[in-house]
Amino acid sequence: MTEVRVRFPPSPTGYLHIGGARTALLNWLWAKKNNGKLILRIEDTDAERSTKESIQGIIDGLSWLGLDWDEGPYFQTEFADDHIQAAEQLLASGHAYKCFCSKEDLDTKREAAMAAKKEVGYDGTCRNLTPEEITEKEARGLAAVIRFKVPQQEGSISYDDKVLGTIERAYSDIEDFVIVRSNGKPLYLLCNVVDDIRDRISHIIRGQDHMSNTTRQVLLYHALGAPVPIFAHMPLTLDLQKKKISKRSHGEIVSVQFYREKGFLPWALCNFLILLGWNPGTDQEVFSRDELIEVFTLERISKVNSVFNYQKGNAKFFTDPKLIAMNEQYLRSMEIGELGKLVKKELVEEGLWTDAYDGEQQQWYLDTLDLIRDRFHTLKDFASAGRAYFAEDYAIEPKPLKKNILKHPDLKTWLPMLAELFSKLDDFSKEETERVSRELAAELDIKPGILINGMRTVLTGQLAGPGMFDILMALGKERVIARLRNIDRLYDEQD
Ligand code: GLU
Q1: pTM for this one?
Q2: pLDDT, tens digit, for every residue of 146-165?
Q3: How far away, in angstroms, is 155 Cα from ligand 1 center?
């Protein structure tokens, strides 16, 4: 088998979209599975719309996702000579011709054809110009585009799509399409093929939105005498209303950067994306990189469009709840040392990091993450909902404040009493702290829950979380006692 060489060729006209990331992921998987190569090619020929920021955004996004490439980034604009040369080759071999029809002529003809309900397409006026006629028009200074000469014959052009089977299109359905503009600039259809030939691309894995180009591009491969790569067209990703997801209608949630900023784990996003348009044929949904590389096949790419279920999720913002669930699953099950590195970045950013967490307090740091991660949705939660473990300036959420503190003004004396009992403990253990708390509740003739919920709120600011006595152990005797003694502030702040 020839070497597998796939490519990801984004046009750098915006941020890295999750649809683009999915395309990159599938190509990456196919390269990895076959010990092949992934080529990153920036299709920057549209100079007006291409931006440096977008190029950087694409590179950063792919790197963050862990989708590494083997060659590139190549820039399409650097290969302009190849594109011109290919157009000249097609002219010389009779597969293309110069067309001098003006835009006005073409518009008039199109309108007339529409009015007569005839087929609208280029009518072939310049298809058979003699060399003398061409010279004469050029001498008059008329501008010409270059059109590809679609064979005028019965039958159809076809290719074998790995996902969709044989795709056919009648020659009569394809007009002589433009490959070079009158200003001498080759068009995308041609550049893309020329680059894929030069880069020796074996498989083209891209969205079904490119299918209308593919048959024309197959004609170009034939005309340029190059082998046709294997095509695999992926379904599109739509929202629940069956609209294509886009920045205009869905905003930032379609950008990879959004998930990075919200504290998602890159592989959780990849794992979610692969299931949008591919299925393993089993019930398994969570895959490690290696597992996915092992089971991935082009044939299992779906034929039908997939749905991005855009709605409010448990992480309090709009995206697909399945993506949030996937992130939670990874957050809760990943190797704790790996998580430690990711959370470190968040804590550093928030000014909550101390190098001791990499040194003498490393065990405490990792144990604490392990304790609190169960209820968290994203990496951001460690520095927000988990702030009380790393700093004293944590917020008390309004709901538990009202329910667990303000409703029970006696806690103002009860919690400092508990602090005194804790301070006398030689053995500040889960068992002993629990015993003392329950004894105090019995003595005061109140439900232990009142003390426990009050303590939870004062100590963490949260309504829910890990087991109360585990929290005490994570915070340590000194911090627990100081915070319980200082409960007054919660009432004072209300005045
Ligand atoms: N530059 C094109 C795009 O971003 C690439 C299409 C292709 O994969 O051939 O849509």
Answers
A1: 0.92
A2: 999 999 889 999 999 999 99
A3: 28
